[in-house]
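Sequence in, structure out.
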Amino acid sequence: MQTVWLSSAEWFAVLRIGLGLWWLESWRHKDKKQWFTGGGITWAGGIAEKHRWPFVRLGFDRVVRPRPRLMAYVVAYAELALGLGLIAGFLTPIALAGGLVLNLIYLVLMIHDWAEQGQNLMMALISAVAFFGMSWQAWSLDDALGLFL
């Protein structure tokens, strides 16, 4: 495909790296002390309690609420791993699929908040485009190591 300035594979890599930076910012801006002492999960629990869809409340109560500390670490370090993996282009298809799932979980939890919906929808769209555009074909460790050809 003819493009301006970069090849199509490089443009997909730009999207992948930008998405990785977005995930890294999601991790960076968290108040880690408050997050890891239960603040983030408590906040999400308050949203889940008032959620209009009963399956969200039920899922949160069964999976997240019994393990607030573990889930706080899972969420924070998943965001960090996604950011670093996408920037470096390491295990990129796995990171893109994982990020898409995490964005969809966030989207469902925050369905009433238009600002959050926009961010999560945009990140999910970028994940899908970067996945189907095989964004690991340029500027990535995956490409350098010959993974996911």
